[in-house]
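Tokens as discussed.
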């Protein structure tokens, strides 16, 4: 993962979905591939379309792509 340049803090007054979206946007600044994979896979997990090992596999693949850049 590239050097981290941004930070994320949970906003107490915001909904879970709003904080999650803000997290994805913050991560995207530092690592767009990982942010895209995480957004896609967490939403699939919440919908019941994948399982935890599937999410981890997708994140490992995205992390490998990020490190290769």
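Sequence:
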């Amino acid at each position: 993962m590239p050097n981290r340049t941004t930070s994320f803090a949970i906003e107490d007054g915001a909904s879970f979905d709003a904080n999650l979206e803000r997290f994805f946007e913050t991560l995207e600044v530092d690592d767009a591939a990982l942010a895209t994979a995480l957004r896609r896979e967490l939403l699939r997990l919440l919908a019941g379309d994948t399982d935890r090992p599937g999410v981890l596999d997708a994140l490992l693949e995205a992390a490998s792509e990020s490190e290769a850049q």
